[in-house]
Known about the structure:
This protein is α/β, with parallel strands linked by helices. It has one domain: 3-Layer(bba) Sandwich (D-tyrosyl-trna(Tyr) Deacylase, Chain: A), CATH 3.50.80.10. It has helices spanning 39-51, 99-115, and strands at 2-15, 18-23, 26-32, 55-56, 62-64, 72-77, 120-122, 130-144. The strands form 2 sheets. Strands 1, 2, 3, 6, 7 and 8 form a 6-stranded mixed beta sheet that branches. Strands 4-5 form a two-stranded antiparallel sheet. α1 (39-51) packs parallel to α2 (99-115).
Amino acid sequence: MRALIQRVSEASVTVDGDTLGEIGPGLLILICAMQGDTEAQADKLATKIAKLRIFKDDNGRMNRSVTDIDGSALVVSQFTLAADTSRGNRPGFSTAAPPEDGARLYEYFADQLAAQGIPVAKGRFGADMKVRLLNDGPVTIWMDTAD
């Protein structure tokens, strides 16, 4: 699985003008299931993200996790994280999981993150979403379970 994690002061996602999810301080997680991914990759990624120390402590050092700050997570599916730009100018997405697997692993990942004690808001898999965020730092981190 691939994830792009952004430390945010706030974030929200809307579909057709309706707000589906919004959070205050925490993480915006753009997530993509790749071909062959299983629940094991989702478990690994959720655990790693929950413990990722990217929030400032009292000394201004990135030493606290989202759970340490009582933060939330906004999880948004984003198959374009599977983009292959190695040939031509049009990205290919053939390495992304098929939609039914992607949807299942997206929901499973969000559930596993919530099981870590993190309040989770979500977008809608496969929808044309509008995401708003106030990136804090900015702090943006790329994660891939294949690495």
